[in-house]
Design brief:
The structure holds 2 protein chains of 2 kinds. Chain A is α/β, with parallel strands linked by helices. Chain A contains 12 helices and 12 strands. The radius of gyration of chain A is 19 Å and the shape is globular. Chain B folds into 2 domains: about 110 residues, 3-Layer(aba) Sandwich (Glutaconate Coenzyme A-transferase), CATH 3.40.1080; about 130 residues, Glutaconate Coenzyme A-transferase. Classes of the chains: A alpha/beta, B alpha/beta.
Chain lengths: ~300, ~250
């Protein structure tokens, strides 16, 4: 399936959505397609909204943001989000805020199909007072009071992987974030893979399969789909773009120009790659650093 | 004329707190430089853990974010964030956690969420990320922050990451596993916390900084240790590693 069809078929206005990936494997290609299809009123969940939700918020796709750290790491704020939250540009958005551990626990509960997850956290903070979804429970064994967060079960998870087979068995190496939990927690899963491989390849290294095809609804093969995020072993994080985003996004007009030129102005990821140019893409190409093979024999 | 900047001194001072074989939860920016400096000098076996899932990282370039691919290459283990927060942090394996923020109060409570009202903020900051749980679980916390009346206010606008909360040390009441903030390193001095009142006390003053200037950058009546020392300046070797290897493009060092 191509990205256009996958987004059209699987994402409805008003859906609760997670585009997975923690710094690594954030599927910008899917976010851009969501913007092109002018999806509306999405409840966008991620630990770190990152540039992709900044862009989706600035494009007016998002009604509510569920998150735990909203910044451009090592660079500065997310201005698209701030303009929406502080000034209602282009629309007012609601926020529901946790900490990383809180969000992780929400996905754990969601993946386990439990109503909530307990954790030792939040005591003494003001977040506890502002987010009434954070509650507590008494341990039936020790009597200890533990914090709780509600399960998060998104309508759709978009998870990028380095490689997958046609059934959606997806292998990821490098940082894994909460992709596995987000996928198992969600009602639908779209896998976007850098590379399509035969099932034999998957079966040759089953420990690396983070997401099994049985929970996958659509498989999209899309090289370079994470840029300016990265895919370990395929291409580097485009740190310079993250630095440049500060200037691009600080001014509303310049951010709108970026969206119309680089998102609305291209029709798919292939166009985007051509617009970046081969030289640009080659500079980000990953160096080789192969692991020692393991023997799965018995 | 000093031959080093305030941020270089902060990095060096933080690095000297770290002991070999400690397990450190590393934040981006100055803490990352401090940990990697320590690894190059006195603490080669320091285990760096990043909230992104890199355990025992050995970065060969300066990571712009805590999820940089260079943290994965050559690390001991890469785990999911479920494992980082549940098994490593809540599991009690983290010796030292570094925290920063926009405001810190005299009890070591940190705000990195909002300036002004939560719903209608003057400035919306990034929020907790992993900071809150690090503050609660790491055995010891080192706070690194640039100091001014604005960042050292009488009362912070939002408690994102709890220190001792107040003079009654509420950590005990809440049964927080970590001991709380141990040290605050700023561009003007170094602070620890009183055993009894849990209030910040000035322990070291940086070379060339006057007590008057330092007091002018604190909003409360600052307590000063009777054994106030001058911070030991960076060595040539420390500066060379920072400038040539760790942050040659001066991304974090000013």
């Amino acid at each position: 399936m191509n990205m256009k069809e996958a987004i059209k078929k699987n994402i409805q206005d008003g859906d609760t959505l997670i585009i997975g990936g923690f710094t690594h494997l954030i599927c910008f290609a899917a976010g851009h397609e969501i913007i092109r299809q002018k999806k509306k009123n999405l409840v966008a969940c991620r630990l770190t909204p990152d540039l992709i939700y900044d862009q989706m918020i600035a494009a007016g796709c998002v009604k509510k943001l569920v998150f735990s750290w909203a910044g451009n790491p090592g660079v500065g704020p997310l201005y698209g989000l701030r303009r929406a939250f502080e000034k209602g540009i282009p629309r007012q958005i609601e926020i529901e805020e946790y900490t990383h551990f809180g969000m992780v626990a929400r996905f754990m509960a969601g993946a386990s199909k439990l109503p909530f997850m307990h954790l030792r956290n939040f005591s003494g903070t003001d977040l506890l007072k502002k987010n009434t979804n954070i509650k507590s429970v008494q341990c039936p064994y020790t009597g200890e009071t533990l914090a709780t967060v509600p399960a998060l079960n998104p309508d759709v998870a978009i998870i990028q992987a380095q490689r997958a087979d046609a059934s959606g068995n997806a292998q990821i190496w490098g940082l894994m974030g909460v992709q596995r939990e987000a996928a198992f927690a969600s009602k639908k899963v779209i896998i976007v893979a850098e590379e399509l491989v035969e099932s034999d390849v998957i079966r040759s290294d089953p420990n690396r399969t983070l997401i099994p095809g049985m929970i996958v609804d659509a498989v999209v093969i899309e090289p370079f789909a994470a840029h300016p995020s990265y895919a370990q072993g395929y291409y580097d994080r485009d740190n310079q773009f993250y630095v440049d985003w500060y200037k691009i996004s600080k001014d509303q007009r310049s951010m709108e120009n970026y969206i119309s030129e680089w998102i609305l102005g291209v029709s798919n990821r292939k166009d985007y790659q051509e617009k970046l140019g081969k030289g640009y893409i080659d500079r980000l190409k990953a160096q080789e650093r192969f692991s020692a093979p393991v023997n799965y024999g018995y | 004329m000093q031959e080093y900047s305030a941020s270089e001194l902060m990095v060096v001072r933080a690095a000297r707190e770290l002991e070999n074989n400690q397990v450190v939860f590393v934040g981006i920016g100055l803490p990352n430089l401090a940990c990697n400096l320590a690894r190059r000098l006195e603490a080669p076996e320091l285990v760096l853990i990043y909230e992104s899932g890199a355990v025992g990282a050995a970065p060969s370039r300066l990571p712009l974010s805590i999820g940089d691919p260079c943290l994965v290459t050559d690390s001991i283990s890469v785990c999911s964030m479920v494992e980082v927060f549940n098994y490593y942090l809540q599991g009690g394996l983290i010796d030292v956690g570094f925290l920063g923020g926009a405001q810190v109060d005299r009890f070591g409570n940190i705000n990195s969420t909002v300036i002004g009202d939560y719903i209608q903020p003057k400035v919306r900051l990034p929020g907790s990320g992993g900071a809150c749980e690090i503050a609660i679980h790491a055995k010891k916390i080192i706070i690194i922050i640039e100091q001014s009346k604005r960042t050292f206010p009488e009362k912070i606008d939002f408690i994102t990451s709890p220190g001792f909360i107040d003079e009654n040390n509420q950590r005990k009441k809440f049964k927080m596993p970590g001991r709380g903030p141990d040290l605050v390193i700023t561009d003007l001095g170094v602070y620890s916390f009183s055993k009894d009142t849990k209030e910040m006390i000035l322990r070291e003053i940086h070379p060339g900084v006057s007590l008057q200037e330092l007091r002018a950058n604190v909003s409360w009546r600052l307590k000063v240790s009777p054994r106030l020392k001058t911070t030991t300046p960076p060595t040539k070797k420390e500066l060379k590693i920072i400038r040539e290897d760790l942050d040659p493009n001066k991304i974090y060092i000013r």
